[in-house]
Design a protein that fits this description.
The protein is an alpha/beta fold. The protein has a single domain (2-205), classed as 4-Layer Sandwich (Metallo-beta-lactamase, Chain A). It has helices at 47-59, 74-77, 80-86, 163-178, 196-219, 225-232, 241-258, and strands spanning 2-5, 8-12, 25-29, 36-40, 63-68, 92-93, 111-114, 117-123, 132-136, 141-145, 184-187. The two termini are 37 Å apart.
């Protein structure tokens, strides 16, 4: 299923689940009239999905010239090497050198330019240490991977992910939204979000609220991350409690470091 948002086309991977929502959003981007585009997050190693990305490119008269990764989790990156092969041995660019194919990586402040298309790389660690977001200035959109989701909130995947980093990333995205450099969020899972500022402010408010709840759970006698999860996430499907426990560990670590819940 393909959805067009400005210069970006979404191809939904067939991997729905409690953590992936409807599935992974693979994004195909190209400048209008161009014959070369790039792909962000080819997704899982699913041959049908990888070929569907190529079909979507062909429908637009495009060949794929680069592959970019928002981060290294398998539901975003596992299919990258195979897709690079299918697309004609194109480079894979990522922050983590282990996931690159070719000599060029990606880092905060980089500009990716391809056949008139421009993406600006914004380091947004927190969900993982290697998380990146990509701003498309011409559309005022931002591809956020798992830093911001189209529905619900994301996991801070402790210990690789750190809450202090994540809060800093959210504040950075908020600053971009306040400056009208981004208006729309193209997430790694879930629907497109047309109000970037409201979304990011909602995320920051949610994190501040969760930190208070975690503090209260500890004060009420919770002695382990699991006990905190059982108190704070009692209204959440237990199938996602293991992921919630990662976030709780990140929150407890943050509270130990800072002594307070200042998340806004």
């Amino acid at each position: 299923m393909a959805e067009q948002v400005g210069r970006a086309t979404r191809i939904l991977a067939p991997n729905p689940g409690p953590m992936t929502l409807d599935g992974t959003n693979t994004w195909l981007l190209a400048e209008p009239g161009a014959t070369v585009g790039l792909v962000v997050d080819p997704g899982p190693l699913h041959e049908g999905h990888l070929r569907a990305i190529l079909d979507a490119a062909a429908e637009q008269g495009l060949r794929v010239g680069q592959i970019l990764l928002t981060h290294s989790h398998p539901d975003h990156a596992e299919g990258a090497a195979r897709f690079a092969e299918l697309a004609g041995d194109v480079p894979v660019r990522a922050l983590d050198p282990r996931y690159r194919l070719g000599s060029e990586g990606l880092g905060d402040g980089d500009v990716v330019a391809l056949a008139g298309l421009e993406l600006r790389v914004v380091g947004t660690p927190g969900h993982t240490s290697d998380s990146l977001s990509f701003v498309v200035p011409a559309d005022r959109t931002v591809l956020t991977g798992d830093t911001v989701l189209g529905r619900g909130t994301t996991v801070v995947a402790y210990p690789d992910g750190r809450l202090a980093d994540y809060l800093g990333s959210l504040r950075r995205l908020r600053d971009l939204a306040i400056a009208h450099e981004i208006d729309t969020v193209l997430p790694g899972h879930g629907p497109v979000l047309p109000d970037a500022l409201a979304t990011v402010e909602g995320y920051l408010a949610h994190r501040a609220s969760r930190l208070v709840q975690v503090e209260q759970a500890v004060a009420a006698g919770a002695r382990s991350p699991r006990e905190v999860v059982e108190m704070v996430y009692a209204d959440v499907d237990p199938v996602v409690w293991p992921a919630a426990e990662l976030s709780v560990r990140a929150q407890l670590d943050y509270l130990a470091e800072t002594g307070g819940p200042a998340a806004g």
